[in-house]
Amino acid sequence: MAIVLDAFASYVGDLLKQVAQDELTLLLGVSSEIASLHERLNSLKDYLADAERRRITDQSVQGWVRKLKDVMYDVTDILDLCHLKAMQRGGVGSSAPPVNISCLDSLLFCLRNPLFAHDIGSCIKALNARHDAICKSAAAFSFLKLEAYEDMAVPRRPSAADRKTDPVLERSAVVGEKIEEDTRTLVKMLTNGKNKKQNAVVVVAVVGTGGIGKTTLAKKVFNDEAIKEAFDKKIWLSVTQDVNEVELLRTAIRSVSVGGASDGRESNKSLLVPTLVDAIRDKRFFLVLDDAWSDRAWSGLLKVPFSHGAADSRVLVTTRHDAVARGMQAMHPLHHVDKLCPPDAWSLLKKQVVSSEMEEVEIDETLKDIGMEIIDKCGGLPLAVKVMGGLLCKKERRRADWEKILHDSIWSVPQMPDELNYTIYLSYQDLHPCLKQCFLHYSLLPKNVDFFIDTVTSMWISEGFLHGETDDLEQLGEECYKELIYRNLIEPNAEYAGEWVSTMHDVVRSFAQHLARDEALVISSRDEISRGALKPHKFLRLSIETDDLQPNDEFGWKIIQGQKSLRTLILVGELKINPGDSLITLSSLRTLHIENANCTSTLVESLHQLKHLRYISLKCGDITRLPENIGKMRFLQYLGLVCENLDRLPNSIVKLGQLRYLDLSGTSITSIPRGFCGLTSLRTLYGFPTQVDGDWCSLQELGPLAQLWVLGLSNLENVPAISFAAKARLGEKAHLSYLMLECSSRLGEDGFVEDENGVPAEEQRQIEEVFNALTPPLCIESIEISGHFGEQLPRWMMSRVAGAYERLSMVIMDDLACCNQLPDGLCRLLSLYYFQLTHAPAIKRVGPEFLTILPSSSQLRQAHAFPRLKRMNLIGMVEWEEWEWDQQLNSVHAMPALEELVIKNCKLRRLPPGLSSQATALTSLYLRNIQQLNSVESFASLVKLEVYDNPNLESITSLNRLQKLVIDGCPKMRILEGVPELLRLELKDLDMEELPGYLLQSVSPRHLVLDCSLEMLTAISTGESGPEWNKLSRVQHVKAYADQGDNERRWHVLYTRDPYRFETNIGISSSSSSGGKSTL
């Protein structure tokens, strides 16, 4: 991406300002040059915002801006080298933070070294001469003095979204009757009628310009109930402009395979295609190809394997071009998406700006006239309206503020490039300069890789986009990330909880990459590599994704190492490394992210020669060691390692005093060097191994690390005494928000203690004391405990003590080999919203203490136990038989906010009455392999119930709001009643000899999905003359299936009551009737 001029100038100016003070008068011949450099840059500062704005459409200004940036880049390199030289010779402490480094001290030391001073002095004089010429030429452009940001921090925290799409529908993007009408039309086209070409798949196309809502419409169709009923399999493939064929095949296989399995590492198309054929064979599928830029993905890759599906399968493609739809032989007429009508556009805008009906009424009365004029400028594009809403929601709801946006001069900029959308441009210009840099950088991230928020923000910090107080950089990065979401410039990925991963719409991505085109290049296909996209230009930032390379492709490191000006390199996928290849030529590199590449030791050994490097992320299975002299990389701030064969750290890592992030959890490292305690800049530390050597324990190295926000400890069974654990001083870490405490597992594959003699009592007592000593601070927000093998959990999770953790919102416990009782303090946690317990074989009973709040002299009696708990998972408590929670257990009510409950693999005899009577918000219940459970009853709020492999379950009753029910592997299930709202019933029993009687007596779901034996399906296939017809005839939609060996759902019967339709492939390949009974 192109660095934003005014933000970068402010950063460089801050560095130079430190140098231009005090003792520099002693540095004859250099002080005046440095002061002059700073003064000239400062004199330009007020005009740089205009230069940055005009460079987008004025090539001459773009050239001037590039020259100025080149000078500033060189300045940062020289200041880095000065500081590095000083650190190497003892002039500056190695832990000095990279942004607030004492540039003055560094230069004083370096310039007093005559040889080094001469070289630096010459460089600064040359830079000053270049800068002088640039300043003089600025007069020719008549730059305007625009309002500037003085503070490089984000001015306010948001109060509240790569383009690889998913089928999850964002409700705030849906407005108006038109999209509902279009959805109904498309669903009817896709589900009605027969394919005249019996051996061909029908393709339906949705066509429209970028950002007009094609994907939103496709999502509504994909999630429609009629589509779910009509097809055996639904597959969503995000094609995008730079289609990755291997990833498409992998995703398709995952979507249609049993359990979502696929050959995740296979990259050979010739092997993936037969796998897809086997998975899709004879299945009626609905395939969405979203955002297709050509027909190549269909015609050249997917058409042949998907032709093996059942007749009457359907493909829905969204594309910007009619030619693509015609190339895929789509049905005519093509479905063209219309622009939003003004009322719908206004409704969508309001959804982005206001949050209540009262505010909506207010805005209708005061701002609708201006809003409708703004809407008109958005051209009816939903994406443009959403981005505009993201801009307006940052403004006061006053006419003057909205009129300022309406009359902004950007709307009248002539000759705007096609890649630049006026609305996005206006939103971009409203961003704070440092936020502009973060936004442009996000467009570099490969589209087919999920980057988590901590990785993204670490890149921003390493690039110098975020600077200020070093204690707050991670928090500042998180605020910038959320601000981009709030403005609809990136969107949270619905597949992940919270906002950990986000995506960027193609239109927004194209905009950002166009602005960054002079400095950054994104390559996401082999075609771009083969065209030699790297050769004609020297880039500063390079992002390459090569997952679609084939074994005979010639993409090697030599293509990259010629880019000697690179400051950022992001590489995902394979590349060829030859003897002699190294990183040496990339001497200005700040960020290096390599993933899934054969990053050989030859390449890794040269890492230490990258003096400016701040960020390293290596996700490569073939790396076995890091360079011993990694300690020379004094500026390194972020080190993420997912290298399973890496088993030791170099001793010199303790010299990386500026390191803020270290992740060892993806390695086999079991020891750390002494002196680790010197890494006092660390904020995040994952996978820290516990190691003991005589009277030394690695945990004591954590004591001085007071800035930690995130900490994960492993191998805690190695701690021989509580005195070692206490030296970690966890309770003193005032910033710690996440803590992971882990021991090696004592459980076998069957879920019980692996050693037949159990865990010795002395070892249990020892680990209990160790965990007691690892008391987290009161500011903790998330805790994970894994592998604890004591009988009692830590004291700080008990009763009155736990209540002090007012911020603790997530508790996850796994692999508790000997624990026989749940902690009685969890119920007092006021902020706890997620609790998960897995694999606790010693717990046989959950008593009233789990829910009872004892009175406290220092605190009023709490009104509810678990007052904010929304999700609870209890899994693998294989000996659990009793849960004591009577309706009148005590005066304290429990779990009033609980929405989802999962219970798996236990011997529970019954669900407690208190759960059904007090958990009044419970809407989803999942029960699997509960050996002694015989009934589920009286859950008034339950909407969704899934029961799997419960051998003694006999009855489900009195669930008045239940809409969806799944019964799978429950052979004794005979009674189903009191479910008046039931819409969908899914029933699987391969041993049933007749359909359950309740289908005739007490329930009549609208949709019935049945998996049964071939014998049962054959009986059903006889239709009205068969013995089961009276049980099925009352249901509106029936889909019944039988397997044939490994071929899942090979045989089917499909029935619709009104309008009548009966279809089966039993006996002959297919048989159907419309308007009358099928003939078999």
From TrEMBL:
Pfam families tied to this protein: LRR_14 (PF23598), NB-ARC (PF00931), Rx_N (PF18052), WHD_DRP (PF23559)
Coiled-coil ranges per UniProt: none
Example GO molecular function: ADP binding
Annotated ranges, domain Disease resistance R13L4/SHOC-2-like LRR: 581-938
Family, per entry: Belongs to the disease resistance NB-LRR family.
Stretches assigned to the NB-ARC domain: 184-357
GO biological process, one term: response to other organism
SMART domains documented for this protein: LRR_TYP
Name this polypeptide is given: NBS-LRR-like resistance protein
Domain Disease resistance N-terminal: 11-90
Organism: Oryza sativa
Sorted UniProt keywords: ATP-binding, Coiled coil, Leucine-rich repeat, Nucleotide-binding, Plant defense, Repeat
Disease resistance protein winged helix domain boundaries: 445-511
Stored InterPro entries: Apaf_helical (IPR042197), Leu-rich_rpt_typical-subtyp (IPR003591), LRR_dom_sf (IPR032675), LRR_R13L4/SHOC2-like (IPR055414), NB-ARC (IPR002182), P-loop_NTPase (IPR027417), RX-like_CC (IPR038005), Rx_N (IPR041118)
